[in-house]
Write a structure and sequence with these properties.
Strand content: 15-25%
Family: Belongs to the peptidase M24B family.
Distance between the termini: 48 Å
Number of strands: 19
Structural class: alpha+beta
CATH superfamily of the largest domain: Creatinase/methionine aminopeptidase superfamily
Helix content: 25-40%
Cofactor: Mn(2+)
Keywords: Hydrolase, Manganese, Metal-binding
Organism: Halalkalibacter nanhaiisediminis
Radius of gyration: 23 Å
Number of domains: 2
Largest sheet: 6 strands, mixed
Protein name: Xaa-Pro dipeptidase
């Protein structure tokens, strides 16, 4: 699978007269090498050439993990006292590369590293490789979809743990800890993002921070979580009511649910992405809550928890078979609370498949 990805990218490099590509975004390095890590300030990068085997640059301490990930091509390893740019310069000089351009991730490359690359290859012009990389990652293979399905099941499980943990006196952080503990017991070492357990007025902040606030009867409790499994992310949001619910809260929940269901009905190949956002927004606006829906309807999902496509109302691209993304309408009313219902969606030949399947009908947890 990785070999085919690299061959496809190398063909593009030849067509664009590119000397080499310098790839250092975590998700992109993983996509083309199978190696995923958090290098912090250290350099981990992948060099892809039109007519030469690729090369991975990484700290020596990571080399065993690189091999474990299945990488069998060249590696430039370096110790903390060594200058990786000097080692890279020596390696590039030995290749006698052709081409007039150097492909970089313009949206992710630090300025200081861009300066170093310019010194290494002063005769080459920078060109962006961002669109090409995302084009390749946009349509998922059967192998990727299989992993995403399993990651989604674990996200479902995480919500189930959280809902069952609700009881008076427990805090948001208590419940969050139980969720992540049970997921770790299943072998999960990394969450897709910081797990959210938000209750009451806290749930009215779409990306609020879980706290030591206790859960109280009559409040919404919002769960937003996902796991990283074999390099791929999951993402789910569910909202439940604890012990009791007001008419206004019920109306908010029903509106969000209807917005999601109507949007899901449009999820099929050929649908304009912007129409998904417009559909959900119309349902919520018609119910009088338009100003309380402050974000787009969803985002792409894969080796990053947020990637293309961006499901905003101005996106004129069309859905294609193999795309994976979220559908997540929400209403967030200050002093009342918030509701978000989020599912992972795969576009199929027949329409769509929800990878996340935890029940979304209103639950009042006694």
């Amino acid at each position: 699978m990785i070999e085919q990805r690299l061959l496809h990218l190398q063909k593009w490099l030849r067509e664009e007269d590119i000397s080499y590509a310098f790839i250092q975004g975590q998700a992109n390095v993983f996509y083309f090498s199978g190696f995923r890590c958090h290098p912090y300030e250290r350099i981990v990068s992948l060099l892809v050439f039109p007519d030469h085997e690729p090369c991975l640059v990484c700290p020596n301490m990571e080399k065993a993990l690189v091999h474990q990930a299945g990488w069998s091509s060249d590696i430039i390893g370096y110790s903390d006292h060594e200058d990786p740019w000097e080692l890279l310069s020596q390696y590039l000089s030995s290749l006698h590369l052709q081409g007039t351009n150097l492909a970089i991730e313009k949206e992710a490359l630090f300025y200081a590293r861009a300066e170093q690359l310019q010194k290494l290859s002063p005769d080459l012009s920078f060109v962006s490789i961002d669109a090409k990389l995302m084009e390749q990652r946009l349509i998922k293979s059967e192998a990727e979809i299989s992993i995403l399905r399993e990651a989604a099941k674990l996200a479902d499980f995480g919500v189930e743990v959280g809902v069952h943990a609700l009881q008076t006196g427990r805090t948001e952080m208590d419940i969050l800890a139980l969720i992540e503990y049970e997921l770790k017991r299943k072998g999960i070492t990394e969450m897709s993002f910081g797990t959210l357990v938000l209750s009451g007025e806290q749930s009215a902040n779409p990306h609020g921070s879980p706290s030591m606030k206790q859960i109280h009867p009559g409040e919404f409790v919002l769960f937003d979580l996902g796991v990283v499994l074999e390099g791929y992310c999951s993402d789910i949001t569910r909202t439940v009511a604890f012990c009791d619910i007001s008419e206004e809260q019920r109306n908010i929940y029903d509106t969000v649910l209807q917005a999601q269901l109507k949007t899901l009905d449009l999820c099929k190949k050929g649908t304009v992405l912007g129409d998904l956002d417009k559909t959900a927004r119309k349902v919520i606006t018609d119910a009088g809550y338009g100003k309380f829906f402050p974000h787009r309807i969803g985002h792409g999902l894969g080796s990053e928890v947020h990637e293309l496509p961006s499901l905003n109302e101005k996106n004129k691209e069309q859905l294609k078979v193999g795309m994976t993304f979220t559908i997540e309408p929400g209403i967030y009313v200050p002093n009342v609370g918030g509701v978000r219902i989020e599912d992972e969606v795969l576009i199929t030949d027949q329409g769509y498949e929800c990878l996340t399947t935890y029940p979304k009908e209103l639950q009042i947890i006694k």
